[in-house]
Write a structure and sequence with these properties.
Helix content: 25-40%
Bound molecules: zinc ion
Shape: elongated
């Protein structure tokens, strides 16, 4: 069995050091964050640790969201402009999973509120212009693409987050992690 340290076993931030040489570095494994806009909307983000598969450099990438988080509501009425795109995405995902449930389950197993919910979600989304829906989709895809494009090291190597970590100096896998904070 392959033994060693992986980011998914770590969490938070701290320092990583090698048991076979003098290598030691402060790193982030995974942390949550975000910022509040002037109008009080929250844009969540997270930071994830990566290791370059070529040169072994440890680094961090921040993933931000393109839309402010919206508060729970089943309608778009009264949703602040900044939060509207996020709420539209949520209602779209509710509608999609309802449609999947209703397709996969016989009608006598449907929950009582499903049909009405589907009508309500459909109505909410029909009131949104196709241009707005398209703009939301494009912004979401662009944000995903930007993040994917950021997952490269300065050396040109691919950044990985799911592999067993190795020491950038001696290349051994005898690394130790001390978590000093978590968010
Ligand atoms: Zn590299
Ligand atoms: Zn080492």
């Amino acid at each position: 069995m392959d033994k060693g340290l992986k980011f998914e076993m770590m969490g938070g931030g701290g320092s990583i050091s090698c048991g076979d040489c003098s290598f030691s570095q402060k790193i982030v494994s995974f942390t949550h964050g975000g910022f509040e806009s002037e109008s009080g909307s929250f844009f969540p983000s997270c930071s994830s640790g990566f290791q370059c598969e070529s040169c072994g450099t440890f680094t961090t990438r921040d993933q931000t969201v393109p839309f402010a988080e919206s508060r729970f509501t089943r309608t778009l009425e009264g949703v602040p402009n900044e939060q509207r795109a996020h709420r539209i995405e949520i209602i779209q995902s509710w509608k999609r999973s309802l449609e999947i449930d209703m397709r996969n389950k016989p009608k006598d197993l449907w929950r009582a509120e499903w049909e009405q919910n589907l009508i309500d979600y459909t109505k909410e989304l029909e009131a949104v212009s196709p241009e707005e829906l398209q703009a939301i989709k494009e912004k979401r895809e662009e944000s995903k693409k930007d993040y994917a494009a950021s997952l490269f090291c300065n050396c040109g190597g691919v950044l990985r987050t799911n592999k067993i970590l190795f020491c950038p100096l001696c290349k051994n896998k005898n690394l130790k992690y001390d978590m000093t904070f978590i968010t």
